[in-house]
User: What shape does this take?
Amino acid sequence: MWKGFLAGLVVANCFEWVAHKYILHGTHRAGQRRYSPVPESMKSHWEHHREVRKTSFHDHGYVEGIRNWRTKNEIVSLAVVATVASGVFYPISKGMSLAALYSAANYYYIHRRAHLEPEWAVKKIPWHYDHHMNSNQDANWCVTKPWFDYILGTRVISSQELQEQNPLGITLPHVMAQGLNHLSAAYFPAKWVEKKVTVAERVA
Ligand SMILES: [Zn+2]
Ligand SMILES: [Zn+2]
Ligand SMILES: [Zn+2]
Assistant: This one.
């Protein structure tokens, strides 16, 4: 059960990366609109980006809740993905099936709270703060945990303050975090961008 659940969390993290990049941001096509298999979700997501850039990481769509079409789009999309994934995984592994449901609920909890409480986001999911506020929005695709951004080389950190304690994105005892950071530096290094503004200035 627990092995399946853990495997499910890894699959869900991979899905976050792929869906965010290819469905929510879409693919650039020369001389045409960006391509997404779900254009409505892409439209909603780009509007989320515009809102967040204007309001120092806030998204008032989450204050309005389900009455807001973007919030509704996110909830419905997550419900569809969770239902399909848990149904597909169920005959293979009950743990994976459960992880699909948990991951969808957790995604909504984390993403919503992050855009209601930017200071919390800076501490808990700095990679998503980087995703929105970095000069390069074409990176940092994971939302709940940065795992696949490290694996695929798309964790781009803008400042020391926005570097997570370790690549798991879970606060660990210092020695363990250090060990993981050494491993990641050797095999899955994060990239850095130069940035002049401090977090404090941007959150304020
Ligand atoms: Zn995005
Ligand atoms: Zn606000
Ligand atoms: Zn966001």
Remarks:
- Residues 69 and 110 are 19 Å apart (CA to CA).
- The radius of gyration is 17 Å.
- The pocket of zinc ion (ligand 1) is lined by residues 20, 24-25, 45, 49, 131 (CB under 6 Å).
- The longest strand covers residues 156-157.
